[in-house]
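Session log. Operator J.P. requested a structure for one protein chain; no other inputs attached. Running the standard single-chain path with token output.
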Amino acid sequence: MNKSTKARKSQFKTVNLALQGGGAHGAFAWGVLDQICDDGRLSIDGLSATSAGAMNTTVYAYGMMKHGPDGARQALHDFWKDVSEAGQPYNPVKPSYWEQYFGGWENLNQSLSYHWFDTFSKVFSPYQFNPLDFNPLRDVLEQHVDFDEIKRCDCTNMFICATNVRTNKIKVFHNEELSLDAVMASACLPTLFQAVEIDGEAYWDGGYMGNPALYPLIYETETDDIVILHINPIERDEVPKSSHDIHNRINEISFNSSLLREMRAIHFAKKIVEEGWIKDEFRDHFHFTHLNIHSIRADDAMSEFSVASKFSPDWDFLCRLRDAGREATAAWLDENYAAIGKRSTVDLKQEFR
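Structure written below.
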């Protein structure tokens, strides 16, 4: 073992990762995972994820299970490449040549196809316009992950979040419960696809109830550090005025709400510890005693893109988001690596109270 390898091993740290959903914007999370694997200083114990985050999680875990970090990187690249190719003929939001020339990805919300699709999906349900429940992403994911094998994965703890349509409760699928249906349930947008039926229950996108859920990482892993990847912008400087911008902001607020509520609960739990409300004999058994929270924020990278761009399968766009994810993660590691295992790098009181 050479000196550089020894130094790298001595700096090795373990974290849990929480991945939000966000359609094509999930390519940013691809970049985050790619950079973590490339950097080599972090090991991921648990992954809690929703929607596109759930797809990233299963592809990453399967690649890691088969061929280690390099295998995970290659698996994610191949998956997103096939997503791009499969999405081209079926994408409902296709800007014309002139719209691409003058606007590109940033102005997909102005595309005539997006306005048509948005109106259409509010008038007709997927049970009407998609009676066979066709979803090209299902075929792509099935080609890249062997779900019979991944149930036996012991290198990554996976927690895939979905919303129970009938009970309004969150459902978290663990490794042994993972299936193609479970991941598709986590990514089931109810305006596009029929609810996914699993064991007699119907599920929609997990973002409504857990985007993603943090409690499985706290209670069901041995790792005290959670890194949250915020795909949906939490803050925006300007108050939206146009109809589209208002709907876009409603979408962001809705898909952040469950996570922010959980963060406020974590802040309260840590306050109980820090202010000595827990007796000493119980402190080590209280899951929040040594919990450290970190976050990688995509606000700056994503603020220029509207909700319409979440439907874009354009390969250049996906690679642009991947590179933004890599850059954000590299910067975050440079600034915060020393704190992992020692303290939170997020001021919970200031950010989420």
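Operator note: The mean pLDDT is 87.
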